[in-house]
Amino acid sequence: MNTLLLPLQIGPDGRTMLATPAQSLRNMIEQVLFTAPGERVNRPTFGSGLQQFVFAPASDEMATALEFTIQAALLEWLGERIQVEQVAVASADSMLSVTVVYTVLVSQERQTDTFLRSLAD
């Protein structure tokens, strides 16, 4: 199945560019991470709620809760495609960094992707 490359881009032939399966999966993970529950009208539970933790007091317990919340959201929405092995969240200055280590179930290929988001937005 072909999916559009996100963010949308126009190729040299004037058509919208398509994503590879790896790009498509990475885009889906990013959507789950940075979508707040309630943000999508037809899927009110979609997302991880990651951004609600940004201003929470920093502690080991909070970091563990955040990682568990992200793993649960990825399992719920992408559990048929990936097996999440590890999630690590860090913030520095005004940037939030989420590293997800996962196995693609179809190919059994292990991947590590890091997603960055500005906290200033």
Automatic annotation (TrEMBL):
<dbReference type="Pfam" id="PF04965">
    <property type="entry name" value="GPW_gp25"/>
</dbReference>
<feature type="domain" description="IraD/Gp25-like">
    <location>
        <begin position="22"/>
        <end position="107"/>
    </location>
</feature>
<protein>
    <submittedName>
        <fullName>GPW/gp25 family protein</fullName>
    </submittedName>
</protein>
<dbReference type="InterPro" id="IPR007048">
    <property type="entry name" value="IraD/Gp25-like"/>
</dbReference>
